């Protein structure tokens, strides 16, 4: 199974007052990434056909495997079981949790 990612543009691309909307990072805001098996996250239609993922922007975290690539947010969709972070370079999938153990990718 191979994964292809396409980014969906946000409808609100620019905040009216960026300085007011930006939160200060606190130590408890740090994310802990856990690599996931792509087969537990994505349901392929066919093992030979690539799966197309729609991403919803990049996040501040970089891929721990590549160390230079920003991760993309992938929300649940047709073939995606879990919201996760995706590296377009090495095709790795990650869950993200706060230090408290709370999932960072839930609403």
Summarize the structure.
This protein is mainly β. 7% of the residues lie in helices and 35% in strands.
Gap between N and C termini, in Å? 29 Å
Give the proportion of residues in helices: under 10%
Query: What portion of residues belong to β-strands?
Result: 25-35%
Q: Mean pLDDT across all residues, rounded?
A: 76
Q: What about the largest sheet?
A: 6 strands, mixed
Task: Count the beta strands.
Answer: 6
Strand line-up across the major sheet: 1-3-4-5-6-2
Helix/sheet category = mainly beta
Shape: globular
Order of helices and strands: EHEHEEEE
In total, the number of domains comes to: 1
Number of helices: 2
Q: Mind telling me the C-alpha Rg?
A: 15 Å
Poorly predicted residue ranges = 6-17
Folded structure, characterized:
This protein is mainly beta and 107 residues long. It has one domain. The chain is 7% helix and 35% strand. It has 2 helices and 6 strands, in the order βαβαββββ. The model is unreliable at 6-17 (pLDDT under 50).
Write the layout of secondary structure elements.
Elements: E1 3-7, H1 18-21, E2 31-36, H2 38-41, E3 51-62, E4 70-74, E5 84-86, E6 93-98
């Amino acid at each position: 199974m191979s994964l292809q990612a396409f980014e969906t543009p946000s409808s609100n691309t620019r905040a009216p007052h960026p300085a007011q909307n930006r939160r200060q990072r606190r130590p408890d805001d740090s994310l802990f990434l856990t690599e996931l098996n792509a087969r537990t996250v994505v349901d392929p239609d066919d093992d030979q056909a690539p799966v197309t993922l729609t991403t919803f922007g990049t996040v501040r975290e970089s891929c721990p495997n590549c160390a230079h690539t920003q991760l993309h947010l992938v929300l649940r969709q047709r073939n995606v079981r879990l919201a996760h972070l995706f590296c377009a370079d090495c095709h790795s999938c990650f869950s993200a949790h706060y230090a408290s153990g709370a999932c960072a990718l839930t609403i």
